[in-house]
Structure prediction request, 185 residues.
Amino acid sequence: MSTKKNMNLILETKRLILRPLEFSDAEDMFTMDANPLVHKYLWQNPSKSIEESIKTIEYVKSQYERNNIGRFATILKDTGEFIGWTGIKYIDDYVENGNTNFFDYGYRLNEQFWNKGYATEATLFWLDYGFNQMKIEIMNAYTNAENGASNHILQKCSMQFMEDYLDKVGVLWKWWQLKKSEYKN
Prediction:
C-alpha cells in the first residue's frame, strides 16, 4: 500500500468511520486526553494543552509517512462525532517489553463512548484488516494489567495473553499477541 493511498484511506464498520488523523481533530483529541479517567491506565498524565494533541497528530502523521500505517480517527457514522482513535501502528522508534519493529493494535476512546461496543467493533475490524489487507503475520498489543475493560476486549477478540511485564517505572502491563495462522474471522 502506498503512502499516498493510505493518507486518503477511509474505512468503515457497521457504526464507525476510520480515517487518518487530521489537525482538525486536535480539539476533540485534547478533550479526550484532558480527561483523567481516560488516562487512568495510561501513565496518569492527562493533556494540559491543545499543543500536546497537535504534537501527537504530527507524530502519527510521521508514522503514516514512514510506515504506511498509524492510529486512525474513529468517528460515529450516525452523528459524525470523533470518539477517539483506533488502529494499527508499526513500533520502530522505541522498545516495549523488550520488543521493537512490530505491529501493535491499540485504541483510546473518550469516556462518553465507553461501554457501547465501539472498541470491540473497531478491534475486530482492525485485526481483520491487519491480517487480510496488510498481510501482517503477528499482531501485538499491550495493556495496563489493571485495565479490566481493555484486557477483556482483547481476550474477547481472540488476542492471546502472553505475559505480564513491568515498564520502566514499575507499572505492571499485559502483553497480548495474535498470529495470522491462529486468526479466525
Q: What stands out?
A: The two ends are 22 Å apart (CA to CA). The first strand starts at residue 11 and ends at 12. The CA atoms of residues 90 and 103 lie 4 Å apart.
